[in-house]
Task: inverse folding
């Protein structure tokens, strides 16, 4: 492929951007048709990532031990635990931090425990009252600890997603139904196999599948969990309203990576007419045109990804509640004035023109 003029720097940058350096390195390390400097660069990036991954794996075991000792109910759902679940090792998956899901009543105590063990919060408001209100409203906290020359980052959440796009299974259910994976002799709690397809797909869908690594996770899940009861897993997805998001991830894994799909899953893929168009939008966002800043394309994708009407309404309701977006929605622009020329005494009608114009734009993006 490099003989056909592929840009080596672009290739390496895309491998890092999509967090697939370990997989690309494994696939190309013995391929003599690939320039040596490209393979060496991939090998070096892989070694750096592996060293960081080993530190994070050890840190995950330490934090899990700390939480267990203090009765903290938690779940880890990405990072080393996912790598071990899908690959039996951490060398084939890139990750940069540790993610924990905590029950509501354990959240504040967990923050204090981490701070007592060398972690500091990344963002702290100087006004204690504002900080207290912020911590009460937010569903997460970001903390960091320095270990030598490396910053170890931890993100803890009360619930997956946010008010606009919440994960449809509550935190306590995820924790109570979770499984365990052994890391350095510690039983670390992680997501159950039946919930894992929805957790991975909803997270990636929220970001419109902008990383190829997330599609690789779905591929690896399909291959490594061959004995999993997919009918039960997809029933959970259907009951909670995230079936379509999961099917889009499976469709991407099938189209981009050629993964074999179980028959019950294939039937569902073919039955939902929205899956293939959504997967096409995701591929466009992944490689060509991410909808960053395009609120209409972004929210249209998420609206179509939901099966339940109330989930669709919620997306737009919370988007509109943001005062800055309301101002943006109803601010008259030159584009509105270009549609029709109105006399000064009818200038208020430009608000109607704007509503009609933006509605047309929205419908065009959805089609």
Result:
């Amino acid at each position: 492929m490099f003989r056909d003029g592929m840009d080596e720097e672009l290739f390496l940058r895309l491998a890092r951007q999509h967090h697939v350096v370990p997989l690309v390195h494994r696939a190309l390390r013995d391929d003599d048709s690939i320039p040596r400097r490209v393979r060496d660069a991939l090998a070096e990036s892989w070694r750096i990532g592996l060293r960081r991954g080993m530190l994070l794996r050890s840190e995950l075991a330490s934090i899990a031990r700390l939480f267990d000792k203090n009765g903290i109910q938690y779940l880890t759902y990405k990072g080393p635990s996912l790598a071990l679940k899908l690959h039996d090792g951490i060398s084939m998956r890139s990750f940069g931090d540790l993610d924990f899901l905590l029950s509501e009543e354990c959240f504040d105590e967990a923050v204090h425990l981490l701070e007592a063990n060398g972690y500091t919060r990344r963002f702290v408001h100087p006004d204690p009252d504002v900080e207290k209100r912020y911590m009460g409203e937010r569903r997460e906290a970001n903390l960091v600890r320095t270990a030598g020359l490396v910053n170890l980052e931890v993100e803890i959440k009360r619930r997956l997603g946010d008010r606009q796009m919440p994960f449809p299974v509550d935190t306590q259910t995820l924790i109570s139904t979770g499984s365990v994976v052994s890391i350095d002799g510690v039983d670390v709690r992680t997501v159950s196999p039946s919930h894992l397809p929805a957790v991975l797909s909803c997270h990636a869908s929220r970001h419109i599948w902008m990383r190829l690594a997330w599609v690789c996770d779905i591929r690896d899940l399909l291959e490594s969990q061959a004995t999993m009861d997919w009918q039960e897993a997809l029933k959970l997805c259907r009951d909670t309203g995230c079936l379509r998001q999961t099917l889009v991830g499976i469709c991407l894994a099938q189209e981009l990576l050629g993964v074999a799909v179980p028959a019950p899953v294939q039937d569902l893929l073919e039955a939902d007419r929205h899956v293939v168009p959504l997967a096409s939008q995701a591929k466009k966002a992944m490689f060509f045109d991410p909808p960053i800043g395009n609120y209409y394309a972004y929210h249209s994708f998420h609206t179509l990804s939901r099966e339940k009407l109330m989930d669709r309404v919620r997306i737009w309701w919370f988007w509109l509640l943001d005062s800055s977006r309301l101002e943006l929605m109803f601010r008259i622009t030159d584009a509105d004035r270009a549609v029709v020329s109105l006399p000064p005494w009818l200038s208020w009608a430009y608000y109607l023109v704007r509503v009609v114009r933006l509605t047309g734009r929205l419908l065009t993006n959805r089609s």
